[in-house]
Amino acid sequence: MSSAIPINDKIGFGTMSLSWIPNPKPIKESAATIEYVTSKYGVKYLNAGEFYGADDINLKIIKEFLDTTSQPTNEFIISIKGGLDLATFKISGTKESISKSIENCASYFAPIGDSKRPKILYEIARVDPNVPYADTISYIHDYVKSGHIDGISLSEVSAKSIATAAEIAPISCVEVEFSFITQDIVTNGVLKECSSRDIAIVAYSPLGRGLLTNYAVENSDTFLKKIPEGDMRLHFDRFAPENFDSNLKYMKKLYEFAQKKNTSLESLSLSWFAAVSQSSTIEGLGKLPKIVPIPSGSTPQRIDSNFGHLIELSPSDLQEIQEIISSYTVQGYRYNEHAEGTLFQ
């Protein structure tokens, strides 16, 4: 049986915002952004998506980066979400759909056996309610055994689905939304299940899609107005004015703590992951698994802001942060009521 691919990064890099936006930058420019973050900060884990934009643009960006970098490409881990039809926005975990998706994703990389080939993880973006999850994972695992991909990641799954998948094949990581403003996995069993199986957590949107930043707090009067037309956040509940205003009290409390530590809210948010990863700091869960946040950034300035200012947090710091987390109830769905049924399945 194959083994899980270990993820050693303290912080990975999410590439969705390079391509799944109203006006993506040219492919070469976005590839240069990946070159910047990987070469300067030693990032080896990249999170990508077959459907992160039209015409496989995200995969083309990854390919351009791998084709042009002078870094050893076989040291990278590329995790790719697939299985979603952009035309219908429906997930499909059938054998036909999985085969089509994996073969397309694999076509953007060096051939099987090539020494320059990175490690490739594949994850179906959501659980297809019409196909048994064990079957979907077995279809993906067939491509691990054939060498088309190197491992399996899971996305937006319940503790039950994690257990089901782990019985079929080694699971390298579970990608879920996790941040100060999204703590669902602490209470719904997902973090506990991953802890018990030592499966890494990949935390997407670790900065709350921009809510957990100095900019959001310091410019709260205009923050929502400056979100560009076509930005998907405009469809998410937490960016509705009434929810934003309510959650701002919580964001300000975290911001004030960051100021006390002479850092930014975004740096505090990311430093927290480094402090709790593989620790026993969350009561009742034992030793936590590896937790790897995947912030993004489309400019060197934003990347430096996110990656360049991590701080050490003491046990008393973590206790104070936990008291802040516990004292607020975040308002609004992560996405919206329509999408809620597709999460943690």
CATH architectural type of the domain at 13-208 and 270-307: Alpha-Beta Barrel
Question: What is the CATH level 1 assignment of the domain at 13-208 and 270-307?
Answer: Alpha Beta
Q: Largest sheet, described in full? A: 8 strands, parallel
Total DSSP E strands: 10
- SSE arrangement, N to C: EHHEHEEEHEHEHEHHEHHHEHHH
Structural class: alpha/beta
**Structural Rg:** 19 Å
Q: Can you say what the CATH homologous superfamily of the domain at 13-208 and 270-307 is?
A: NADP-dependent oxidoreductase domain
Overall average pLDDT: 93
Identify low-pLDDT runs: none
Q: What is the CATH fold-level name of the domain at 13-208 and 270-307?
A: TIM Barrel
Summarize the amount of helix as a percent range.
40-55%
Shape annotation: globular
Distance between termini? Answer: 26 Å
Keywords: Oxidoreductase
InterPro entries: Aldo-Keto_reductase (IPR050791), NAD(P)_OxRdtase_dom_sf (IPR036812), NADP_OxRdtase_dom (IPR023210)
Pfam family, one: Aldo_ket_red
Protein name: Pyridoxal reductase
Describe the structure in your own words:
- 41% of the residues lie in helices and 12% in strands.
- α2 runs parallel beside α12.
- A hairpin with a 4-residue loop joins β4 (84-85) and β5 (90-91).
- It has helices spanning 16-19, 27-41, 57-68, 95-106, 133-146, 159-168, 184-187, 190-197, 214-218, 241-260, 265-276, 300-307, 315-326, 337-340, and strands spanning 13-14, 45-49, 77-82, 84-85, 90-91, 119-124, 151-155, 173-177, 200-204, 291-293.
- It has a domain at 13-208 and 270-307: TIM Barrel (Alpha-Beta Barrel).
- Strands 1-2-3-6-7-8-9-10 form an eight-stranded parallel beta sheet. The protein has a two-stranded antiparallel ribbon with strand order 4-5.
- The protein is built from 14 helices and ten strands.
- The longest helix has 20 residues, at 241-260.
- The model has no long low-confidence stretch (mean pLDDT 93).
- The chain is of the alpha/beta class and 345 residues long.
